[in-house]
Write a structure and sequence with these properties.
A seven-stranded parallel beta sheet has the order 5-4-3-2-1-7-6. It has two domains: 335 residues, Alpha-Beta Barrel (TIM Barrel); 84 residues, Golgi alpha-mannosidase II (Immunoglobulin-like), CATH 2.60.40. The protein is α/β, with parallel strands linked by helices and 441 residues long. It is elongated and about 80 Å long. The chain is 23% helix and 15% strand. The chain is built from ten helices and 13 strands. The structure holds alpha-D-glucopyranose (GLC). The site of alpha-D-glucopyranose has 9 residues, from loops.
Length: 441
């Protein structure tokens, strides 16, 4: 019997759809798309707000068409999305009574969050919002001496008059607005905690209680307590109420399943960028290939996790064309092979040499990513295979007992070609997936 406390039990139930969905879209959109040097530009360049805030006057969002965004996400095979309702710069893409620094006051005069949730829901995509619990613009948020605040080195910005409780009221108030004004939300992505700015510093127990009161089913990340550096008590057997529903490794894929202290797998989601920036960056053309994205998605699922891939739209509201192209190619693969991703998780069998396994009950998916000379080996699977099909077209892949394999008969083998050889290059050079139906145990 697994030890399960109430927090873990509720988490497992809540995250069912999310663990099945496996593939999501992150969207980092905000005023930082104008300087276009990443969403941390204010902090990195220690930019005073007088320089940053006027960008609001150029936010026309003239090509923002969230229906188009939702269609692209859907075609890429993504089942959920997370949009930055507010990032660390404090600029809100939604109408809020707590600040003037919001999209409804920009020339676009639109509640961008409302349009997003409506458009994505209409496509059947689960909707999530990213919300920054730190706010570099708010007067009551520590400036001088903070680790990352843009004004950290300015003594004149010292914190004597700042009232952190007032900040918390503001922050909690905005979260309440998001949870009450936009219908059913599926996911809240809070970001982030650092140093002693974590847990009860955010009045996290109270915040979570409020969130769950308004939207009991909602899934929450782990960053009220944890961070990308340390997942927090979600990895213990007694997680705090604000430990979150999933761990959120960033710009890396964990070496194995993420487990708690007793070895029970916990939900997790790797978040990654397509180039090297979250926010739109005009000069960063270091895009990953669609092949690498497919490989990474498969890797995550083979370790029991999700992958959320980021898009950084321009200030006009367009996805960068490189991102659009990657989404299309990934979508083509997902259309043919999605069955080996959705509802799947790690396999009972260890990682094979030529690729990876994902599994869903008695369906084992062999993701062949590397060409092999001779038969493809299913280690220690002799007598286990009932049938095999190329997932893409349902054609038979035959188990082979070829003469040169006899000495290694503890394994099962197949060729991609009935003539006792493989096809070169592989039928799908990104990842050729064979669906293996296992014999009942
Ligand atoms: C971070 C960064 C950030 C980004 C996020 C995505 O911790 O502060 O800019 O939004 O992670 O995971």
């Amino acid at each position: 019997m697994k030890m399960e406390n109430a927090v873990v039990k509720a988490r497992t139930e809540r995250t069912k759809w999310y663990r099945d969905a496996r593939f999501g879209m992150f969207i980092h959109w905000g005023l930082y798309a104008i300087p276009a040097r990443g969403e941390w530009v204010r902090s990195v360049e220690e930019m005073p707000k007088e320089e940053y805030e006027p960008f609001i006057d150029e936010f026309y969002a003239e090509n923002y068409n969230p229906k188009e965004w939702a269609r692209m996400a859907k075609e890429a095979g993504m089942k959920y999305a997370v949009l930055t309702a507010k990032h660390h710069d404090g600029f809100c893409l939604f109408d809020t009574k707590y600040t003037e620094f919001k999209s409804t006051n920009a020339p676009c005069k639109r509640d961008l969050v409302r349009e997003y949730v409506e458009a994505f829901r209409a496509e059947g995509i689960k909707v999530g919002l990213y919300f920054s619990i730190i706010d570099w613009r708010h007067e009551d948020f520590p400036h001088y001496g903070d680790n990352i605040h843009p004004m950290r080195n300015h003594e004149e910005c010292k914190n004597d008059q700042r009232n952190f409780d007032r900040y918390l009221e503001f922050m909690h108030g905005q979260v309440r607005e998001l949870l009450t004004n936009y219908g059913k939300l599926d996911l809240m992505w809070f970001d982030f905690s650092y140093g002693d700015m974590k847990c009860e510093k955010w009045k996290a127990a109270e915040l979570i209680q409020m969130v769950r009161e308004i939207q009991p089913h909602i899934i929450i990340d782990n960053r009220l307590e944890g961070s990308a550096e340390n997942a927090g008590s979600i990895r213990t057997l007694n997680p705090t109420p604000y430990s979150g529903d999933f761990a959120s490794p960033e710009q890396m894929i964990p070496p194995a399943c993420i487990c708690d202290e007793a070895g029970n797998p916990i939900p997790w989601e790797a978040c990654i960028t397509l180039n090297n920036n979250w926010g739109y960056s005009a000069h960063d053309k270091h895009y990953k290939s669609s092949k690498l994205i497919v490989k990474t998605l498969v890797e995550c699922v083979s370790k029991g996790g999700n992958l959320i891939v980021n898009i950084g739209p321009t200030i006009k509201g367009e996805f960068p064309e490189e991102s659009v192209a990657i989404l299309k190619e990934v979508g083509k693969w997902m259309k043919e092979n999605g069955k080996s991703i959705y509802g799947c998780t790690f396999s009972d069998y260890p990682k094979p040499e030529w690729g990876r396994f994902t599994q869903n009950g008695n369906k084992l998916y062999a993701h062949v990513m590397e060409e092999q000379v001779g038969a493809i080996c299913l280690p220690n699977m002799a007598g286990k295979v009932k049938s095999m099909r190329l997932i893409k077209d349902g054609s038979e892949v035959k188990e082979t007992f070829y003469w040169n394999l006899k000495e290694y008969s503890e394994n099962a083998y197949f060729f991609f070609n009935s003539r006792a050889s493989n096809c070169y290059p592989l039928p799908d050079e990104k990842d050729t997936v064979v669906e293996i139906t296992l014999k009942e145990k």
